[in-house]
Write a structure and sequence with these properties.
With about 110 residues, the protein is α+β, with helices and mostly antiparallel strands. The protein has 2 helices and 7 strands, in the order H-H-E-E-E-E-E-E-E. The strands form 2 sheets. A 4-stranded antiparallel sheet has the order 4-3-6-7, with no helix packed on it. A 3-stranded antiparallel sheet has the order 1-2-5, with no helix packed on it.
Amino acid sequence: MNPCVSRCALVLALLLASAGTLLAHSPMFTCFDDGSGRIQCEGAFSDGSSAAGSVIEVRDAAGRNLLSGKLDADGEFSFERPAGAYLILFDGGPGHRVELPSAEVPKW
């Protein structure tokens, strides 16, 4: 067999094997306190795909669910700031979960 064909076949096999990695995307999720008593959140994926419809949960310090919702068509979600410490969970599907503690939510 021609050595060039062997090398080309090997390169093609490696590219096909790594296609999942090449197409992978990571979740991007951020929230901020807008100063009016509301928390504004935005979510998307690093490859530019939409996270619309992704589930958002807000839990208190004991882990109890305070509220749930979904990112809208623009990838946004807002809610009234809970009293005390809380945790915001973004669930963009398997392997795409982000947890944001209230201590890391900046005030604008």
